[in-house]
Amino acid sequence: MKEEVKAILDTVRQRDPDQTEFLQAVDEVVESLGPLFEKEPKYIKVLAALIEPERVVQFRIPWMNDKNEMVVNRGFRVQYNQAIGPYKGGLRFHPSVNLSIIKFLGFEQIFKNALTTLPMGGGKGGSDFDPKGKSDAEVLRFCQSMMTELSRYIGPDVDVPAGDIGVGGREIGFLFGQYKRMAGEHSGVLTGKGYGWGGSLIRPEATGYGAVYALKCCIDEQGKSMEGLRVLISGSGNVAQFAAEKCLHFGAKVISFSDSNGTIIEPNGFTREQVDQVVAIKTARGRCSEYKSETGQYHAGKRPWQLVDQADVALPSATQNELDDADAAYLVAHGVKYLFEGANMPSTPAAIEVFKASGGAYFPAKAANAGGVAVSGLEMAQNSVRYFWTREEVDQKLQRIMSDIWRQSSETAKALGHPGDYQLGANAAGFKIVADAMLAQGQA
Description:
By secondary structure, the protein is of the alpha/beta class. The protein is built from 16 helices and 13 strands. Strand 3, helix 5 and strand 4 form a beta-alpha-beta unit. The model has no long low-confidence stretch (mean pLDDT about 95).
C-alpha cells in the first residue's frame, strides 16, 4: 500500500477507532483499490475527502407506545456525498443501528449509486427502533415523530431516503404521509412508495432480481447456464424472496431460506409453491420455523452455509458479516463457484480472501445488490415527470442497468491488469465516477 494511502487510513482510524463496521467498509474499498492508485495516483488525493461524510445528523425520536408510555429512540441521517446527485440511501430500523453502521452503509452507497450510472449521491439513515412486535399504531406514531425531525434535512432535490431492514411499505407510507402534512407538497422525497401514490412497479423485487441478473451476466460471460445450479440463499425478506423467484425463472434450484432463528433446507430445491409458502409466512411476520414440508429440514440457530454437501452459488441476503472465513472454506470445498452479495457487506474480509483465493467469482454488495437503488432512481425519474412506466419497461431498464454494472466491473478489472477480480472492478469503477466529479467541482 502506498504511504499516502496508509496515512489517510491511519487518520480515519484515529478519528473513529470504535466504529468497526465503518472501518471495515473503508478498508475493503481502499485496500482493493491498490492497482488503481498505482496506475492513476491522481485519485489518492480524493480519498480523504471522500471517506469523510459531508454531514452527519443525529436526533432523538420521542413517541408514545400503546401503554401510554413515552419511549425515546435515536435517529440518524448521514449525508455522505452529493458529487453526482442528491443524497440517496435507505433508512434502517433495527436495535443494532448506531453511527458506525449508518456510516458504513452510507459509504458503500456512494459507489453503489455511482455504478447505476444514475445521478444519485450517497447517504443513509435509520434508528435503533425495532418494528418487530409493535402494533401498527405504535409504528405510525414512531414514524410520524421521526419524520417531524428528519423533514428538516431532506427533499426531492436534496436527500431522498428509501427503505432498508425494518422499513417496508408500511413504514414508508407512514413517513411519507407525515412529510406531506409538514411540507404541504406531494413530491418524490421518498422512494419505495406504493404504486398509485408515487411508487414504481418492480421496486420491491428490484434488489433480489438485480442480484440474479448480475449472476446471470457472469455465468453467460463464462459460456455456462444457470439451469440446475444449486443456490444457497440466506434471509427470507424481500431480497431473498425475489432472488429465489428469479433463480427459479432461470432454471436454478434454491436450496435454503433463513431468518435470525434458523434455516430451512430443501435438499432437492424449493418448488414455486414452497417459495410462496415462505413468502406467506414472512408477510404475516412469522418465522421460518413455521414452514411445513415433508422434505424440508429446519436447523434452529444455524445459517445456511455449512448445511449441505453440494452447492454452486451463495447469495447472502440477510445482514452484514453473516458469512465468515470458515463458512467460505466450507462453501469452496463443497463446490460453490459464485458468491454474489444480496445484503450489505454480508461477508467478512477473511471470507472474501478465502473465496477469491479459490478462483471463484466474488461480486460485492455495492454492485450485486444495486438493483434496489437503481429502481429507486427510476422511481425518482417517474416522480419528476409525473408518469408511471409499465412493469415490463422498468424490468427492462433494471436488466440493462445490472448488465452495465457487470460490464463496467469486468472491463475495469481487465484494464487494471486483474481480469476476474470483480471486487476491484466494481470498487474502482464506482470510485472513478465519483472522484472525477469531485475533482471537476474542486471538492478534492
